[in-house]
Amino acid sequence: MNLAEMLTYADIGQLSKIANHYQCSCNENSKNELIQSILHQVGRKEFIEEHVSKLSDEDFRFLNTLLFDHRQHYSLEELMAAAQHTRFTEDAKEKENPRDIIHRFRQRGWLFNGSSQNTKFLFEVPEDLKLRFREVLGQHLKAEVRIGDEPNAIREEHTLASEDLYLILFYISKNEIPLNQEGIMYRRNQMQLMDTLHVNEPLVGKGGWRFGYGRTFKFYPDRLSLLYDFAYSQRLIEERDYKLKLTSLGELFVSEEKRESLMQLIRFWLKTYKAAIPNLLSLMYWIYRCTQEWVTVTSLGQSMDRLIKPYYYDTSASIFEERILKMMLHLGLIRIGEDGERERYVQITSYGKTAVPMLQRGFEGPC
């Protein structure tokens, strides 16, 4: 439902609050005048730009959450949880009641109660405002990145993730692989396996913290753990009697020399990392919007920074570099370049230009 329809269903009390917020000059006892005044104000070309530039970090994050949530209606509890997640630190100035954020969005006319008997205790965002906000937020973020020339050295991994998933299964089919008490391959087998893959990663060292990004993330390197967890989730491999083996489905996969689609691997990455990075889908989309040309990694990271919440010992900068940008490279969505002065650049790939909008449309629920 668009803004004009939602204003029609709103009661005169809410309309008056919205009109007062925008300092509309009209007869507050006339619902029609209130609606027309609000539509005139919100309909101005500069309206969205003006308000986006003035948003606090918390309101900016809350708005971003609503723009990428495909649900049509929200309960108050769902909105409260979303507003709570906008607080990245516990500074006194940030200890704001989530209800205050929701109240501000209602006062601005960006959030309304449902119009039917079944939805009157739920909330929704006008669809036309969502589209306008998305466009302006994209322009706002893109204006913060620095465009550069094509770098001298370029790294792009294309479909290597799919190829290496097959090679992992092939290695398991040809070797007897013992597992330790924690159900993990011994380092000797990990090194042997790594030598067969297109993309080599250093093995995980002892000490330090590793959790939140998948079932075996604690024990295996980032990319390997993602591919391993995918194979396990698809029941291509099994850990039985302290040995790693292919299932009958995995044996069929190898015998037919099948390759999993990158799209399925990306979907699995989004779901696996979503607990630690709740707005991962929107961050991927904004990176897609900002990297149609070569842009510096530094400026892109600065543009995304206020949307990335630290996760335990993972800072917003390390999440951007290690959990998002590096994994998008591994999954064929972006390519990374470096110029003669060792400045790094990033650009969306041709596959990424197709895949990211498709993925964004295909996911349901909070993003």
Explain what this protein looks like in three dimensions.
- The strands form three sheets. This protein has a four-stranded antiparallel β-sheet. A three-stranded antiparallel β-sheet has the order 4-6-5. The chain has a two-stranded antiparallel sheet with strand order 1-2.
- The protein is an alpha+beta fold and 367 residues long.
- It has helices at residues 3-9, 12-21, 31-42, 47-54, 57-67, 76-84, 98-107, 127-142, 160-174, 187-196, 222-233, 248-255, 262-273, 280-290, 297-304, 316-330, 350-362, and strands at 112-113, 123-124, 153-155, 177-178, 237-240, 243-246, 295-296, 334-338, 344-348.
- α2 packs parallel to α3, α9 crosses α11 and α14 (280-290) packs antiparallel against α17.
- The longest helix is centred in the middle third of the chain and has 16 residues, at 127-142.
- It is elongated and about 80 Å long.
- The two termini are 21 Å apart.
- The chain contains 17 helices and nine strands.
- The mean pLDDT is 93.
